# Entry
Amino acid sequence: MKAIVQDAYGSADLLELRDIDRPVPGDDEVLVEVRAAGVGPEVWHLMTGRPYVARAVLGLRKPKNPVKGWDGAGRVEAVGAKVTDFKPGDEVFGNCEGSFAEYARAKAAKIALKPDNLTFEQAAALPVSGMTALQALSGKGRPRPGQKVLVIGASGGVGSYVIQLATMYGAEVTGVCGPTGADFVRSQGAAHVIDYTRENITDGPHRYDVVVDNAGLRPLPVLRRALTPRGTLVIVGGEGGTAFFGGMSRGLRAVALSPFIAQNLGNLVSVARHEDLLTLKDLAEKGRITPAIDRTYPLAEAAAAVRHLEKGHPRGKLVVTI
# Structure
């Protein structure tokens, strides 16, 4: 089969299209014939091995799995001995190990039947970013009707889903993005837009009940000033920061400080959960959320997709088609 392979950590220049053996699913896995794969920050982390602390899981000296990709959508080709929820021919989406390939293994607990109303490309744009947004707005981060929500990094994959979900919950959403992303952010449901090249998030009179920071650039004191006295901050992922810890150090500081102040400060590292995929499937089929795709690339041009992710500001998700 054809796959995008990388032998050592580094830039997109190291991604190569090769013929390799088809993977064999384990007892609790399925083999998916991949039709489309999402391209998000998680692919960059897998490719570069940064932050370095992540290499304890990804592989210390080189990637444990040389095939890139994490999100995927396609058809079940074969199932493991212990899998009872799926059968060959089922159309599925979720977390696939090495989805930049014609075939990929997936844990049965980390996939779900594809939403009936979505294409494979749309479905591949949903799992990681959609689950991250869903988990960011859960617990104390879930806004109540009428509350004000600030979404930093609003034009990206996670940001677009956070806007849609927060609007669905009845919140008044302000999105932070660059000057070229304003119309897109409004189209996702944001009532207001802040152009970060022209103003700071604390310049206006408004303070926010919930701030979701998906960009990783602003210091913790600045984020706190944007909150109401009892507001909730959700720092998403490990973007920004140092090469070793990435943005995790900022998130850890937020968690350590939170018990001593009235504001609720949290750090989210999303996890793949079958129940969240089912929720996203239901919301998509009801038209409550819609994946936004900036651009699609054929498998042979996966490196170009990653470069676009690094250098540009995709409006929504990038997708590789197989």
